[in-house]
Structure to design on (273 residues):
């Protein structure tokens, strides 16, 4: 993997691609629902904080407003451009840099590393291990308050959506799980990965979080699974979307027509050993 991928690649090595306008319209809940993990981070004025997988910078801007000194990192050039524009027009200034999460270049530069809804886009155990090693290097070992606080998709995340996609894409000879390349670990697995990387776990928990989708399931699929769906020609894509939505309606759509995604989050707070 390179540290400067093309503009149309995802934030990390994954089958996903990002459209900043679609993300702003359909994915703003990612930052909006992050209040509890931000509270766990408890950013302090003057602290140097790395926001790993900052995306379009919406949450980075919120963290910078606390007086902390923020560096946002992402591998998506399109997302980073949106983050730069946000910083330019915000009273809470921060900087952004383009790096892959598995090849972070920092050494003892940060008091905290923060990540929200990004780590699950890093494929496989080896990718996670490389990322955690880079996070450990980036933290200041002489700071007793140095910490890594994050929230990501956990075991069972969007299980119904994934199962429906697997079923509808199978006739097209597409393995939806392999194509999406997401990583949704259990607390036990991620605890082992963190401890092997040199962290001490202060807290780690799996949190069911049913998430309303005000723009509906089709918008969610087109935003968060477009890398999978784009493998189909336009006619087959439309058919697969319709079939997936039909499978999910009895489970995730209520009698009033409101959609809710079956999110499950893994949230943790780790310190240097």
């Amino acid at each position: 993997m390179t540290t400067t991928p093309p503009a149309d690649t995802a934030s990390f090595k994954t089958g996903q691609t990002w459209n900043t306008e679609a993300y702003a319209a359909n994915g703003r809940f990612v930052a909006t629902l992050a209040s509890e993990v931000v509270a766990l981070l408890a950013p302090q004025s003057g602290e140097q904080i790395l926001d790993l997988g900052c995306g379009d910078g919406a949450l980075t801007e919120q963290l910078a407003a606390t007086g902390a000194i923020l560096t946002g990192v992402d591998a998506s050039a399109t997302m980073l451009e949106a983050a730069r524009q946000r910083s330019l027009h915000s009273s809470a200034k921060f900087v952004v840099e383009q790096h892959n999460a598995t090849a972070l270049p920092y050494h003892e530069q940060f008091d905290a590393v923060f990540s929200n809804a990004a780590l699950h886009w890093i494929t496989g155990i080896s990718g996670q291990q490389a990322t955690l090693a880079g996070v450990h290097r980036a933290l200041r070992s002489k700071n007793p308050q140095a910490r890594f606080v994050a929230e990501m998709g956990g075991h069972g995340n969007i299980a119904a959506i994934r199962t429906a996609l697997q079923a509808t894409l199978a006739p097209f000879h597409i393995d939806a799980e392999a194509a999406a390349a997401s990583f949704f670990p259990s607390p036990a697995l991620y605890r082992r990965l963190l401890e092997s990387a040199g962290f001490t776990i202060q807290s780690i928990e799996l949190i069911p979080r049913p998430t309303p989708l005000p723009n509906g399931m089709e918008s969610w699929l087109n935003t968060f699974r477009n890398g999978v769906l784009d493998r189909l020609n336009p006619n087959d894509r439309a058919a697969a979307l319709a079939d997936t939505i039909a499978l999910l309606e009895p489970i995730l759509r209520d009698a009033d027509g409101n959609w809710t995604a079956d999110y499950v989050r893994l949230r943790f707070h780790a310190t240097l050993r």
